[in-house]
Design a protein that fits this description.
It holds the Pfam family LPMO_10. Residues 41-224 form the Chitin-binding type-4 domain. Residues 262-303 are annotated as: Disordered. It comes from Brenthis ino. With 303 residues, the chain is α+β, with helices and mostly antiparallel strands. It has one domain (39-257): chitin-binding protein cbp21 (Coagulation Factor XIII, Chain A, domain 1, Distorted Sandwich). Helix content is 16%, strand content 25%. It is built from 5 helices and 13 strands. Strands 4, 6, 9, 12 and 13 form a 5-stranded mixed β-sheet that branches. Strand 10 (200-202) and strand 11 form a beta hairpin. The protein is globular.
């Protein structure tokens, strides 16, 4: 097989062999991969999401578009699906399980990180193309759930108490969050939602400006584990306990460490029926009752 190439503006002719063609195609393939990566917008790196865990785990299936999970785009999300998006950034109208949900192409349930209950955890997000806006994090203790309401119950707070983080520019951002109080599980799902703010739209107050209206949305899911806390006397009990598969060992250890307050049992008082049985007989004779009533003295008053 031979291909002849004519250079523009020159009569020079180059003859390329089959080996050169294979080498050229490999370079074009690598270039197309780079173009796809540059076209991305943001990814969750720590704990790595289901789309990005292949960067740290050789056994995970690679997703070269791990920074482009944008719910299918603005039109598909806000027009066709009426603002809905898959829990992990997949288009909402895709067949379940969607690619990044449990049972999907990339939803293998690999635990990416382990944490302790109520700890402060640093989360790393990389923005490859800055679109202003903000992001939030939420947790669902049921890894098989595809309902957004499960995540809405457990939002993560920043250390300053805010829910939304506004990245100032593109690049990697390490942000500290606090795990929800009283929540621990063998297998939780951490959800990242990045709402862009670079599109012009209508605001709620009737005006129009940048950042209002339907915006491009990105998402990702990470599989994490939150261990049970050590039992503290007088401490609050956990609000939610969840596990998948076998019984959580940390949960069993937690229950074993729990101590009950001993209550001294008071002896039961004998009932009235049993009182006479144990009462000693008296030798005294019973008194005779007086049958005659004593006469009452009449008292007269004169005015």
């Amino acid at each position: 097989m031979e291909i002849w190439l004519l250079s523009i503006g020159s009569a020079a002719v180059a003859k390329i062999g089959q080996e050169d063609i294979i080498e050229m195609l490999s370079h074009l393939l690598a270039l197309s991969t780079i173009i796809v990566l540059v076209a991305g917008h943001g990814r969750l790196l720590d704990p790595p999401s289901r789309a990005s865990i292949w960067r740290f785990n050789a056994n995970a299936k690679p997703n070269y578009d791990d920074a482009g999970l944008n719910c299918g785009g603005v039109y598909r999300q806000h027009v066709r699906n009426r603002g809905k998006c898959g829990i992990c950034g997949d288009p909402y109208d895709m067949k379940e399980p969607r690619p990044h949900e449990i049972g999907g192409t990339f939803g293998k349930g690999i635990i990416a990180a382990k944490y302790k209950a109520e700890q402060i955890l640093p989360i790393t997000v990389e923005i490859t193309a800055f679109h202003q806006g903000y992001w939030t994090f939420k947790i669902c203790p049921n890894p098989k759930s595809t309902s957004q309401s499960c995540f809405d119950k457990y939002p993560l707070e920043l250390v300053n108490g805010d829910m939304k983080f506004y990245p100032p520019t593109q690049g990697k951002h390490i942000v500290k969050y606090r795990l929800p109080k009283g929540l621990y599980c063998e297998h939780c799902v951490l959800q990242w939602r990045y709402i862009a703010g670079n599109s012009w739209g209508d605001c709620d107050n009737g005006t129009s400006q940048l950042g209002c209206g339907s915006q491009e949305t990105f998402g990702a899911c990470s599989d994490i584990s939150i261990s049970a806390p050590n039992f503290i006397q007088g401490g609050s009990m956990p609000t939610h306990v969840a596990y998948s598969g076998n019984v959580d060992k940390d949960l069993l250890d937690f229950l074993r460490k729990m101590t009950r307050k001993t209550i001294k049992k008071k002896p039961n008082k004998p009932s009235i029926k049993h009182k006479n049985k144990h009462k000693k007989k008296s030798n005294r004779k019973p008194r005779e009752r007086q049958t005659k009533h004593s006469k009452r003295k009449k008292v007269f008053f004169w005015e």
